[in-house]
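Box 3.1 — From sequence to structure: Blast:Neurochondrin homolog
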Amino acid sequence: MTDVPEPVRKCANLLKGTKSDTEKFAVLFMVTKLVKGRDANAEGKKLLFEAIGFPFLKKLLVSKDLPNDCPPLVYKSVALSILTCFCQEEELATHKDIIAAIPTLLEIVEQADDEDYEDNLIVVSEAYSCLKSIASHAPGQQALLATGAIPKMSQIYSAQSFQTDEALHLIVQLVNKFGVLSWPEDPTAFHALIQRIALDMETDHTDRKYELCRILADILITCRKEVVNNSLDGQIWPESLFKGCGDILKAKIGPKQRDPALHLIATTLQVLGIQWAFMDEQKQFFLSLLQLAAIEVRMQMDEKKLETTFKQAELLTCCFVILEQCIEYMATDQLDLEPKEKQTTYTALKGAFNQVMAVLTRVSNDKIRESTNPRDKNFIFAIVRILSAWLAQETTAMRPAIYKLLPFMLKVANESFHDLKTWRTGSREGEEPIDVLRIMMPALCHFAVEDEARRVLFTHKQDEILLEALEFYFSIAHWKRPPIPRAERLARMNEPDPVPTLEQKAEMKVARGAIVSLCNILMNFTVLEPKRAEDGATFVNLLKFVVENLPELKDTPDNLVIHGNLAVLGLLLLKQQSKKVKQNDFSICRYIQATIRFLWDAYNIDESNDPTALVVSIAYKGNWSDLSELWFLGMQTMCGVLPLVPWLSEFALESGWAEGIVKTLKKVKIGTLPANVKSAYEDFLSQLVDVNGDVQEVLKKADALRVCRNHRMMDLGKKLFGD
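Predicted structure (token representation):
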């Protein structure tokens, strides 16, 4: 304590020598001058803090039992003035006593509109200053989160109390630190806050409009997306954002205004989805947005040094988010464009993606590709991601250049996938990494059928990574109850089964989409690379994974499409690896039963309005566009598998499927059976007859003769009854 200035030392001794609260309070006026002056260094403030004693300062802040010679507000004001100066030092701002005073400070700012404070608003200002200093350090941030400071500050700002900008800056500081954890399950405070800021942004026509764009983007990106989207009824802030952003797009603006606006638009699309861009049921906002983002990408990436382009990473990433959503929406064919609009849009996108390609090619040959700087790394991920989204739709352009760039794109995508996998199996600290490989999967479906691209994929052992990705995403889609520690099992025996949270349900939906894409890629590999599918270690492990996991998959409507994809992928692999299959292998038996269930349940007459009409079952109807090709491919492949693994025919008999087909078709009105369905069933039943001597008897008993006559199944008729 040798470096404590003399005036501070004297004051501390005076404080220690006081005999009453009144005496101590009198000395505090000297303290307020000292702590704001040049003599108060960090050691000096610490000495004064200890000499005063925090209990006395807290008494001044909260107690009503104080001497009557001063109004209570004066005591509060003096205490806060001193605390504000103490909080400028990290050691004191993180002191357990000051951290414990957070609820008191929050109470003061919450009461800013009370009559008591009207004459002395400095008290509220000082309380905000203390909170701001406390929020600058990790212990204070954690304590503010735990005491519900964010919802409280949101309430203060939405009520437009005194000094609400201070509340807003505190919110931004905390949400930037804690992300989605900032918000409780109840979204009321979040909606109230965003509504207030969105309305201010919409109606303000000064530079503050663009500052609010930045703040809105920072807060929106941290929300609990599923919770917010499920509670939007009656909320008008999406419309306020739409109008405010629409005004900006129509105005003549420079980079200072355009950048925060693009940032806000990109974030809003991430939270609310592309439908937000059609709030007025017109396409103009969408087209203006697409053009602006495409032009910005072209300008920022056009023949500049890589260093210059990387400096614009944040802005470009926002443009990429906008373009990705626009491209995906256009691929759904819901947008009705005039020929001129189509041409303008395609020209803008092509110009942007030529530049993206050029920059990524330069990155792949530059030392920056090995950068460990998270900002550089994330920007490279973002470039590969947006190019992958474009290549999922643009399936013919720039092929030679793409094949050359593909190894680097795979390296980046695989790295991002492993980052996500590590994050999920670890402590899950920080923001969740984006899996670029998942975004690339639709493009990989196209590459899987192109000879040159497929050669590159196998050269870089991408099949191994895709199997790893399938296992990873299956573990998310196939949600299981978290294990209960053995010591707690008895006590928790009667607990109801837990259900996934909204966030987990959203993760499961994403995982199911990834599984479908992965199955498509792997099916193409299996069909187009039969030798690899027969002998390759990855494909042997892939079949093992499918036969072991498909029977475990929960029988829910959400899982039907992945059930079908895994079932058919398994059949294709089984056909190639039939020589390795052992008779009555238990896992194969369970897999075939699950596959039969998928193929059997697709059609029935029980759910038809007409008891003589065969219809797609209700369970399949909603997803029939995804399932119909799978069903026909599954039936066709089953016909190819039966001669190679004839003992599988026993399951078609024992399960009652073969007999069930005949009994169902017997009820179907003559001339109404679709030709492709008739072929699928006839080929399958014919194949069964060929490989299993017991089938004829079963089919004849079920009245196959009438079915063959009614539906002109000539080939099956000849096999069963001769000419």
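Summary of the box: The chain has a mean pLDDT of 91.
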